[in-house]
What we know:
Number of strands: 7
Structural class: alpha/beta
Distance between the termini: 27 Å
CATH class: Alpha Beta
Largest sheet: 4 strands, mixed
Shape: elongated
Order of helices and strands: EHEEHHEEHEEH
Number of domains: 1
Strand order of the largest sheet: 1-2-3-4
Helix content: 25-40%
Oligomer: single chain
CATH topology: CBS-domain
CATH superfamily: CBS-domain
Amino acid sequence: MSVGKLGPENVITTGRDSDLAELTETLADENVGAIVVTEDDEPVGMVTDRDAALAIHEHDDVGSVSVEDVMTDDPATVHEDDDPIAISEAIEEHNVRRFPIVDDDGKLAGIASLDDLVATIGEELENVSETIEAQSPAYRP
């Protein structure tokens, strides 16, 4: 299984010129924790719900703050053909939980998160456990 099959393909995106009021409304409406900032379908930034919350302490009129002022520039990405372990390695290297997935042209192809990785590992462990139970009838957890 590749990274491109882990997370949702329908990624919520915005542009640099959006404001934080629009962004937080989208976070709530779409029930997501992050929005990818794109230019020409390429990820150029990322804004998380945490980024939005922390902006309250840095700006007087937080709703009118531009996305560009609070986004993480040049977010770490993973390639759609990468093995899922690439997410684990990227989490360790970059200390973030969410990664835009890109194709060979650097275009946004999806998004993957720590939660996607954990869910995938859980599914794989369930498959392993079924095999163990089938091969060892006396074993029951």
